[in-house]
Design a protein that fits this description.
Elements: H1 3-22, E1 27-28, E2 32-34, H2 49-52, E3 58-60, E4 64-67, E5 70-73, H3 81-84, E6 89-94, E7 104-108, E8 115-124, E9 130-138, E10 141-151, E11 160-166, E12 175-179, H4 183-186, E13 189-199, E14 201-202, H5 208-229
Antiparallel strand pairs: 1-14, 2-13, 3-4, 4-7, 5-6, 6-13, 7-12, 8-11, 8-13, 9-10, 9-12
Helix pairs in contact: 1-5
């Protein structure tokens, strides 16, 4: 191709390249997993509340903050954990250990993350069947709710519940609370693990009509240039 022809086609080539890129798929922010091994980065923790001590607050600035309990490693009284969690560690609270431990675990997420979905696994640490409630908020507004009634006692491999919470980009999830409504009567003993937080997708694909307009303009420019060059 001679230089004259190339320079005549160059704007068209660039425009077609731009259209091609604009037709690409959406760019999606990767989900983040809070598993208490790699995030936060922790070695295997004590396997009982007495050894774990006072409440531990873990956070990664701009990603999450979790409070209310402590991290335990490979607790022998939770046979459901090795099957449903991510050993060795998980995060839990109880009323029979350090008084700083709360009856509610709170996960806080920055609004700038635009979190639209959260999944996790909840474990009953009580020696009795228990009920649990998990609430997702966008600011002060409740956006989703999970209820687990009659979760089997901690000796059962079925003493767990799969949490699934969702919202939308207009009302991103900024906090989640895990608790039991029976804390005042039965006390509390429960854990959470494998928390997966999913940000909203950053869509970069234009509307089909916009892409067609760009392509039509590129082809029109090419035709005009060809006609001008004909004798």
């Amino acid at each position: 191709m001679n230089r004259c022809c190339w320079f005549g086609m160059k704007p068209v080539v660039l425009m077609l390249a731009a259209v091609t890129l604009s037709l690409g798929g959406p760019a999606v922010a990767a989900p983040i997993t809070i598993n208490f091994e790699t995030l936060p980065a922790l070695p295997a923790q004590p396997n009982n509340f007495a050894a774990a001590g006072p409440m531990q607050v873990y956070n990664d600035p701009g990603v999450f903050n979790i409070s209310g309990g402590v991290a335990l490693g490979n607790p022998s009284f939770l046979p459901a954990f090795p099957l449903q969690g991510t050993p060795p560690n998980l995060y839990g609270t109880t009323d029979i250990a350090d008084p700083s431990l709360l009856d509610t675990i709170t996960l806080t997420l920055p609004s700038a993350e635009d979190i639209v979905a959260v999944t996790a696994v909840l474990f009953n640490g009580q020696p009795i069947s228990e009920n649990y409630e998990v609430d997702a908020f966008s600011g002060a507004t409740l956006v989703d709710h999970n209820t687990f009634n009659g979760m089997p006692d901690n000796t059962s491999t079925s003493a767990f519940g799969n949490i699934s919470l969702a919202s939308n980009a207009a009302n991103p999830i900024t906090s989640i609370t895990f608790t039991t409504p029976n804390a005042g009567v039965n006390g509390w003993d429960f854990f959470v693990d494998t928390i997966i937080i999913t940000p909203s997708a950053v869509i970069r694909t234009p509307e089909p009509s916009s892409a067609l307009l760009l392509l039509g303009g590129a082809l029109g420019l090419f035709v005009v240039r060809r006609r001008r060059r004909q004798p």
